[in-house]
Amino acid sequence: MIWVDGELRPWAAATVHVLSHSVQRGSLVFDYMSVHETPQGAAIFRLEPHLERFFHSCALMGLPVGASIDTLRAAVCATVRANPGARAVKISAYFASIEIDVVPIDTHVTIAIAAYDPKADISDRLPRPSPPKPQFLKLWIEKETANRREDIVSPQAKVSANYASPMTAKARARASGYDEILLVDEDGFLAEGPTTNLFLVDAKGELLTPAAAKVLHGVTRSSILELAKAEGIPCRETQLLPEALLGAAEAFLTGTSAGVWPIESVDGNELGEICPGPISTRLRDRFRRATCGEDPEFVHWLTLVGD
């Protein structure tokens, strides 16, 4: 069941016309969050920051959302309750109307919320199996700077149009034997993956991540920054050239689907002495405990959906 503008509809009935503005112009804004089983029941990880980012993305793209954050908070929980076993939630805002011009005449923004198990409800329905997720990443640094241009669309906006260039770049990298790509900004500094943020550990043991101005403000990213502080790991946001990653002692990507995803090689060169490295392992394990309600210090990150 998918929540659409205040009502739950069957999965197959949650549709949009092929000529809608969201499809033809790439104007759909979304956010994606995870659902976890905890000792107290199903819980959504960091619901509030995800909804705040959703509203911020809509504002950046000029989508006038009529619903309040309180309404959508309740709607997300209701959608998860209506879909037992859900492991993910995707909330979308889009112009469902059929439009001719770039600027839509009908400015009603439809809100849709889907709660589902990505594997059972999507991957298992595909005509051929999706590529298995590797335990450790073979990463390619995408050298084409045009794939991340903040003067075209802000990297802070989770809008569908922002994923077109990374899609083609990642397809090329996969064809060459890599699992994932890392984008660089227009100045040649490391930015982010198509759906992930980057962290690396330098030779001094300091955890570094690209500056917030040039990347999506990932909720998992902010969680790792807080967990690193709790663990006493020195951490800093800064501009990073590709050479910093190539010479790192260890590195990992973060994201709602990825969690903490260790990188074993970059551009075909092995990274560090062991994968995952000790800091990656500490943060990966603590992040897992936090998402499952097993870390008392961060239990406030979970929103129980109730019965």
SSE order in H/E notation?
EEHEEHHEEHEHEEEHEHEEEHE
**Which percent range fits the helix content?**
25-40%
**Which structural class fits the helix and strand makeup?**
alpha+beta
In terms of DSSP E residues, the strand content is 15-25%
CA-atom Rg in angstroms: 20 Å
CATH homologous superfamily identity of the largest domain: D-amino Acid Aminotransferase, subunit A, domain 2
- Regions with pLDDT < 50 over 5+ consecutive residues? none
N- to C-terminal separation? 16 Å
In total, the number of domains comes to 2
Tell me, rounded to a whole number, the average pLDDT: 93
CATH fold-level assignment of the largest domain: D-amino Acid Aminotransferase, Chain A, domain 2
Counted by DSSP, the helix tally is 8
Shape: globular
